[in-house]
Structure of PRC-barrel domain-containing protein:
Amino acid sequence: MAVVLGAAPAPSSEEAPDEVPPAGRDTLPVDAFVKILGNEVKNPGDIVVGQIVNVLVDPAGKPVGAVLDYGGFLGVGKRRLAVSWSVLSFTKNGILLGLSRDQLKNFPDYRDGKDAVLATTPAPPG
């Protein structure tokens, strides 16, 4: 029997791989979804305050928060903040952040590899 270098032996009929069915398809109409990453985020005054750069999910894959490149002007003064998924609203007019600049003024920055402190809706007074 001759051996040819670089050639794989042909599989016998007993070793042929099972045929794998092609992936199924779902179609979403363009108005039925919102892109998340890189999308601008507006404050309650409809002013762009940041951009989503990452989505934080729990072990089951459910979104629990988003990381924003927040604030700044021309890249100066920009911070990374983590916000709770519950303070974001997804509308046909864009993504809205339900917290004001004053509410986030002294909030700690998000840091990769560290515990994420998520900005959430303030607790009711009293």
Q: What stands out?
A: The longest strand covers residues 48-57. Helices lie at 101-104. The CA atoms of residues 45 and 103 lie 14 Å apart.
